[in-house]
Amino acid sequence: MYLHLGNGTIVNSADVIAIMDLESSSLSANTREFLKIVEEEGFVRNVSDEIPKTFIICEIDGQSVVYVSNISSKALMGRASRY
Fold first, then answer.
1. Most buried residue, 10, 16, 63, 75, by most Cβ within 10 Å?
2. Could you tell me the maximum CA-CA distance found in the chain, to the nearest angstrom?
3. DSSP 8-class letter at 75
4. Contact criterion met (CB below 8 Å) for 55 and 66
């Protein structure tokens, strides 16, 4: 099955490792450091021009990708659990 992350971006749900709420998870220094590193390394894909709410960690063809979306983690989890 596939998961729509917003702005026409769709990923295979089998590739999703984690769906994280950006506001609550970024309270952790480790999460902030992780997001800083993946952005510096070029693994971040912003799928919205709006205020980000969620980041989704995926592994696609052996490559880590972190998507940043304006769709809430609750809505994305609801979409993912339907299938």
1. 16
2. 34
3. H
4. yes
